[in-house]
Design goal:
The chain is an alpha+beta fold. The chain has helices at about 20-25, 30-40, 45-50, 70-85, 95-120, 130-145, 165-170, 185-200, 225-235, and strands at about 5-10, 15, 150-155, 160-165, 200-210, 220-225.
């Protein structure tokens, strides 16, 4: 009565569905049964749908390069909110810059991971000059769309990255009560996050220098490396 044939055996009774032709032959007047069999899903088609499953989520997709541009107004708004958030929780300019630096360190750690995968074939730099060039070119280009303006050495353990118009300071209007605030502390934190996760311990800070012929001062990122980093560099250079 349900459109199938019954096959009896000693072990069990098995019902098998009829084909469309079989339905016409056994139930010539039952058109509904024939239509139902025409639209039935076979086991193989159902299993195929289950194997395909829903589209992969964003965390399951490959880390391809993709688009690297974001809206400048959206970034400015978001960064402004970050500064305002930490300002209400800091009691001094130095504490506010320290909180911005901490916020940037997480970004730097993730930048090292994703750029090492995308652009370095999952290899990381082990030499000092290599990691400095990686920050100067790869990291800066991914964050700001260009390389840093200069990379200079002060002493054996001190290096300086310079940017004439750093994005985080371009649209910042510092109030009088925070006159010495340098929001590039966030970028210093990004650099520190890259260095620390790559195995190059360093103290990183941001400061201004007056540039001739420019309305805004130049932003410098000072990196002072730990003695063990220099000792390792000497051993590798032998």
């Amino acid at each position: 009565g349900n459109g199938g044939r019954r096959y009896s055996s000693k072990a069990e009774t098995v019902w098998r569905p009829l084909s469309t032709q079989g339905a016409r032959r056994h139930f010539p007047q039952n058109k509904n049964a024939t239509k139902a069999l025409r639209g039935r899903h076979t086991v193989s088609s159902v299993m195929t749908q289950r194997q395909q499953g829903p589209p992969a989520s964003i965390v399951d997709r490959p880390l391809t390069k993709g688009r690297s541009e974001v809206s400048l107004s959206a970034f400015s708004f978001l960064f402004s909110e970050i500064v305002q958030y930490h300002r209400t929780r800091a009691s001094s300019i130095r504490e506010l810059e320290h909180k911005l630096e901490e916020a940037g360190q997480g970004v730097g750690a993730r930048m090292l991971e994703v750029l090492s995968y995308r652009e370095k074939g999952n290899r990381r730099e082990i030499r000092l000059q290599g990691i400095l060039q990686f920050i100067n070119t790869n990291v800066w280009r991914c964050l700001f769309g260009k390389s840093a303006d200069s990379l200079e050495i002060y002493n054996d353990d001190e290096y300086v990255l310079s940017d004439r118009s750093l994005l985080v300071n371009r649209f910042i209007s510092v109030p009088k009560d925070l006159g010495d605030l340098n929001c590039a502390a966030f970028v210093a934190g990004v650099v520190k996050g890259v260095l620390e996760d790559a195995g190059f311990s360093a103290e990183v800070s941001a400061y201004y220098t007056v540039a001739e012929g420019q309305a805004r001062p130049r932003t410098n990122i000072l990196m002072k490396f730990a003695p063990e980093v220099l000792e390792r560099e000497q051993r590798l250079g032998v």
